[in-house]
């Protein structure tokens, strides 16, 4: 019975580790997207390439999207911390 419990804990720990890795990848991806958007906005606002000017609508839309990134990153961070906590709990149970 103890062996079954240990195996279940190992499977759970592996699942949580994979979930944690996916969330960390997503955080990295979103961070890069945010940096890219910030760079593009500053480039356009500063004259940059001068291909086109940004309309008020585009600027408002970009600001709105950018304002959602910190919340999304916080939620992902919370999910990551929860997954890490669960992983540590399962590891402790295995020992």
The number of helical segments is 2
Percent helix: over 70%
Alpha-beta content class: mainly alpha
Number of strands: 0
Number of domains: 1
Inertia-based shape: rod-shaped
Rounded average pLDDT: 82
Cα radius of gyration in angstroms: 21 Å
Largest beta-sheet details: none
Distance between the termini: 15 Å
Q: Roughly what fraction of the amino acids lie in strands?
A: under 5%
* SSE topology string: HH
Which helices and strands appear, and what pairs or packs with what?
Blueprint (H helix, E strand, L loop, with lengths): L1 H44 L10 H39 L1
Helix pairs in contact: 1-2
Describe the structure.
- The chain has 95 residues and is mainly α.
- The chain has one domain.
- The chain contains two helices and no strands.
- Helix 1 runs antiparallel to helix 2.
- The longest helix has 44 residues.
- The protein is rod-shaped, with a radius of gyration of 21 Å.
- The two termini are 15 Å apart.
- 3% of the residues are buried.
- The model has no long low-confidence stretch (mean pLDDT 82).
């Amino acid at each position: 019975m103890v062996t079954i419990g240990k195996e279940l804990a190992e499977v759970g720990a592996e699942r949580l580790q994979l979930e944690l890795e996916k969330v960390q990848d997503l955080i990295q991806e979103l961070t890069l997207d945010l940096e890219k958007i910030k760079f593009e906005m500053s480039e356009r606002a500063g004259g940059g390439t001068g291909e086109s000017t940004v309309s008020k609508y585009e600027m408002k839309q970009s600001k709105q999207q950018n304002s959602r990134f910190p919340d999304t990153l916080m939620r992902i961070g919370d999910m990551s911390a929860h997954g890490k906590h669960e992983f540590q709990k399962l590891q402790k149970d295995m020992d």
